[in-house]
Amino acid sequence: MEHSYVAIPPTAFVGLSCIYCNKMAEPHDSGTPRLLSRCHRCRRVWYCNSDCQKAHHSEHKLFCKTIHSVDASNDPEVIQQLLGPFRSTSNATTRLDEISVLHRCQIIDLYQRKRPLNKAELYLLSCEPRCLGCAKTDNVLRMEANLSGQDRVQTLKPCPRCMMVFFCDGHRSSEVDLHRDTSSDNGFASECNLSRQIRLDSEFRLLMPSPHLHMWRFIPRQDIWISLKGLSWDAALSAPIRAALPTDTSVEHLAGCLRLVSCLASTVMTVLYALEFCLGPTVASCSTLTIHVLGARAEFTSAVTYMYEAILHRLPNVKNLHILFCDNLGGSQGHVVKDVVLCKDCQNSSAHMIHEYIDHAYVKHLSRGTDFKAPDLCILMNGYIANHETDLWSETIRLLLERGVPSLFTANDALYARRDCDLLCGLGARLISGLTLASNPWGSLASDLNLDTLYGFCSANKWLVGCFS
Questions:
Q1: What does the UniProt keyword field contain (predicted)?
Q2: For burial by CB atoms within 10 Å, which of 108, 167, 332, 373 has the most?
Q3: Burial (CB count <10 Å: 0-12, 13-18, 19+), residue 11
């Protein structure tokens, strides 16, 4: 069975969980996690035992060979390309972010020349640990030691508290205190605490491998609509989560479950939040709703099913819910329509939900003239519209504006939110106050590593880019 690196938690890329089975490392007597055994050839993956390494060998061997052939190269051109980004003496954060991204692109280009890499392998390389003070990887440190004739080759060492952020010998003492200070980007948590939270959430997901199967318990069906304005994840879901979990569940795991549920339910709660702004008080009495979700593939998994069923749970008067998915670029899935089997509570209330996937760009769907039926809300989550397929997105947004389709855009970090908002404003969108360049109260509480920075963080739907109606 093919193994997906993308489905593996971040802990697997720093030696805290097995790349094959995801099992977490056993802690030391001090309580800190113990690193697993590293593949001695490519030095990019870790295993909990030889059985997992053997089981993973058939899939890993070509990738391993490719990585090793480049890392062990004595070609001056290869060495110059790999070490070139680190010639600068600047340690400014923005400069280190640029170095990190540039070096990642260069090593991927070198490996791709040897053998085309699949998406999972590209993701694995993108998550390679780097020193917080200089952005160097273990491989860069080895190459520098070989060029200078040093007998001792230093390796990156993790922060002993979070075990997710790394330092070389030259930056450990100068950077570790900054790493533990409150992050200006987040305001409420240090970089160290956020990294530790990512590790703890990875551990929690192993204890609760299929939380989406119980989503309906965490977002139970309500008798009446309750406004989301002024509420928070804790106020809305802590009580049902506590009731759904065993009574002996620790406080730490309760918090982990809330973050995990917020990650799964962020899209739905953001949709409901936007509907309340766009439809006003009438949202409570709606019997039919149509939502168009852009940038989505036809993945009718149980997670997707339960995710959107939560709309029926929060809006009990809705009897017919139609969710249309479109990846906007067009796809090869074909036209798919599925009548979703709902939970017993929804069935007893005579509610129905249809999932539909269209296999052409949404701009074509908008151009159907009188055949086009405007949805109650069109939404694009974490879309990067100002950085990816901008011309196509611009044309789509112009048509949405012309047809008066209520539309919401979100981003997972502040930089992309500002860029996307500028694009919307430049196209003449009159954005709704409260849903424009604002922190989303229903963004995911679970942080993830931001691969566009050295050690930055992002969260799904963290920012409301803008909404027009």
A1: Metal-binding, Zinc, Zinc-finger
A2: 167
A3: buried
Contact 47, 39 (CB under 8 A): yes
How many Cα atoms are found within 13 Å in the side-chain-facing hemisphere of 296? 23
CATH class given for the domain over 208-468: alpha beta
Specify the 3-state DSSP secondary structure of 56: helix
Per the document, the length of the chain is 469
Domain parsing of the chain, residue ranges: 5-201, 208-468
pTM above 0.85, yes or no: no
- Give the three-class secondary structure for 170: coil
Strand pairing partners for 38?
46
Q: Give how far Cα 57 sits from Cα of 3, 23, 121, 124, Å.
A: 11, 17, 14, 16
CA count, 13 A, side-chain hemisphere, 288: 2
Buried residues in 114-131 as b, exposed as e (16+ CB within 10 A): eeebeebbbbbbbbbbbb
Tens-binned pLDDT, residue by residue, of the chain (469 aa): 344 444 677 888 888 889 998 888 776 555 566 678 899 999 899 998 999 999 999 999 999 998 888 888 888 888 888 888 887 655 565 688 888 888 888 888 888 888 888 887 888 888 889 998 889 999 899 888 888 888 788 889 988 888 889 999 988 877 777 787 765 444 457 888 888 888 888 777 776 645 444 555 678 888 999 999 999 999 998 888 888 777 887 787 788 888 888 988 899 999 999 999 999 999 999 999 999 999 766 555 556 667 888 899 999 999 999 999 887 665 556 788 889 888 888 999 999 999 988 878 888 888 887 788 899 999 999 888 988 888 989 999 999 999 999 999 999 988 899 999 999 999 999 999 999 999 999 999 988 888 778 877 889 999 999 999 8
What are the angstrom distances between the C-alpha of 75 and each of 25, 69, 70, 105, 140? 37, 11, 9, 19, 15
